[in-house]
Amino acid sequence: MKMAALFTALVMIGAACSQGDSTSPGSEPSGSAPPISLDSESSTTPPPPDTSLPAGGETGPLEEELAADLDLLFASLSDGIDFDALARVGASGDLRAAWLISDIFRFVGPGAARDALISAFAELTGETVFEFSPWFESTNLLIEWDVPAPLGYRELKGVLFSIVDGRWAPFFDDPDSEIDYRYLNWGGVRPDDRPLGDFDAPCRGGCIPALDDPAVTDAAGGDWYPDGAIVFAVAFEGEARAYPKNMMEVHEMVIDTVGGVRFGMPYCTLCGSAQAYDLESVPDGIEPPVLRTSGLLTRSNKVMYDLNTWSAFDTFTGRAVSGPLREAGVTLDQLTVVTATWGDWKEAHPETTIVAQDGGIGRTYPADPLDGRDDNGPIFPVGPVDPRLPVQQLVLGVETPAGEFIAFPVEAAKDVLQTGSPVEFGGVRVISDADGLRAELIDGTPLVTHEAFWFAWSQFHPGTDLWSQAGL
């Protein structure tokens, strides 16, 4: 069985992070994973099987026979699949190997290989995953069971992903990487490795193309954008700028300068989060990163990277988690992004600019590029979700100077503010900015904030304190 037949998922499986390539909105691969429920209570998950790990427990080495079979299996993926080795992996009794079966699921379409993988996974875990999306189901199951990764997992997973696209290899090369590779998965697109500002460079294999230093117009020149449509907006040093949501759904990354601040703004459509990072907040001697979308995800959050060094970043925190920038200890300073309607933002900030209608690159943007793609819940594995709120309820997230995290449900906070009552919790006050929100300490000191879906905020900041309107 040749690789072209085995990895049919490159055109058949999964939903892309966004509908974008270098020239057109593109299309998502068919056969997207089923969304999970919007209910805060997750469905019942069976307990993990009572499998004994080898001597040394979760961090112990694999049995020699299993390690050899995994090496055979992954070596075979370059031009086929070793069904005998796969069967022996399934019969090994070491639950940790289930992660590697789940990883291969991501790139395998219907056929004998998928059937053999389903059988091996069932023998190893006692659970049969459905053929429609075995990768989605198996990954969520293993996350919920918190199955540890086996030794050598990073290297074997790197073999798999490098077969699909060799440009991903650097993300697996750092032995001291802070990435939890169990959660790292393909988002349906390839890396955006186009040089800064080169809009004519090809988007090889299909990528989500960043928009660098976009052309802008004043507020009056932005009358092409509906007043009721959403913008992600920033204001630095007396200068304000708005980024239309429909453009951000296509590009998912903007590099720009506002008020003398050079920043990158990743927008993770899957977790409802537009954030901004100061690109010059790096140690002396470190070149400001050129942020790009890798095409990879971690628990449904996009993984961005630096084009200069191919260092991966935790998009939600701005911390470099692999490569030279991890070694340099880089964590980018985060900046406030306000989510508002264009009409209210330009009324509150009449001096604002807005990205030009064609982005300055002669492109036409559909009003709703995603067409309700995420309306029914996450379409990629996220594992267990903090049950205090529905998974896709928007919250305004705040980190206090003491390093504590607080989340304010957006609509509830707006409702209270509209009555004239304050929204205060844990020494933090939420205030209106246009019809969006930002936060400050009780003494008026501004705090960095952005909105996100609850599942995303709570998984990256577990133990977050949650303001409740009912507690007023």
Question: What's the SSE blueprint?
Answer:
Layout: H1 3-6, H2 9-12, H3 64-76, H4 83-90, H5 98-105, H6 112-125, H7 134-145, H8 153-164, E1 184-186, E2 211-212, E3 216-218, E4 230-236, E5 239-244, H9 245-251, E6 253-258, E7 261-268, E8 273-274, E9 276-278, E10 291-298, E11 301-306, E12 311-314, E13 319-320, H10 323-327, E14 333-335, E15 338-341, H11 342-348, E16 353-355, E17 394-399, E18 405-409, H12 410-418, E19 423-425, E20 428-433, E21 436-441, E22 446-447, E23 449-453, H13 454-460, E24 465-466
Helix pairs in contact: 3-4, 4-6, 5-6, 5-7
Descriptive keywords:
472 residues, alpha+beta, six-stranded mixed sheet, five-stranded antiparallel sheet, globular, disordered N terminus
**Helix segment count?**
13
Please indicate the percent range of residues in DSSP E strands (runs of 2 or more).
15-25%
What is the number of beta strands? 24
Instruction: Describe the sheet with the most strands.
Output: 6 strands, mixed
- What is the residue-mean pLDDT, rounded to a whole number? 89
Residue ranges: pLDDT <50 for 5 or more in a row? 1-5, 8-20, 22-43
The quaternary state of the protein chains shown equals single chain
Q: What sort of overall outline do the alpha carbons produce when their principal axes are compared?
A: globular
- The helix/strand class is alpha+beta
In which range does the helix fraction lie? 10-25%
**Cα end-to-end separation:** 64 Å
Radius of gyration: 23 Å
